[in-house]
Amino acid sequence: MSCTAKIDEASLERLVDAFYSRVRADADLGPIFNPAIQDWPEHLEKLTAFWSSVMLTSGRYKGQPVPAHLKHKNKITPALFDRWLDLWKQTTEEVMEPDAAVALQAKAARIAESLQLAMFFRLDRPTEPRPA
């Protein structure tokens, strides 16, 4: 059985609701998300559609995540992405079956990496060499 067989619309809705309940209450993420989201029920529907499109290839999500995040670039840091991923890991492990949780975590990590590249990467910024 594929992990997508363990992921359906209902489980994604439960996951998104549980996760963003934690985000809203989080000391680091809450102050970023709460003022930015005017209509939480509508936003949760949009996020459920996003994860449905990503994990189930449903095509339900029609938004543009990069511009949505770029609007808040002055408030978002790489450390906040790490915090988001930590909460996502905790929530997926509690709400989803193990194989589905792992798949959702891997997809979220790739999405976070892409968003961070879009938000913070600059070719004109010299990169520091990493220690060997």
Automatic annotation (TrEMBL):
SUPFAM superfamilies referenced in this protein's UniProt entry, alphabetically: Globin-like
Entries under CDD domains matching the protein: TrHb3_P
Pfam families associated with the record: Bac_globin
Keywords of the record: Heme, Iron, Metal-binding, Transport
Highest taxon, organism lineage: Bacteria
A GO term for molecular function: oxygen binding
Protein name as catalogued: Hemoglobin
Biological source species: Stakelama sediminis
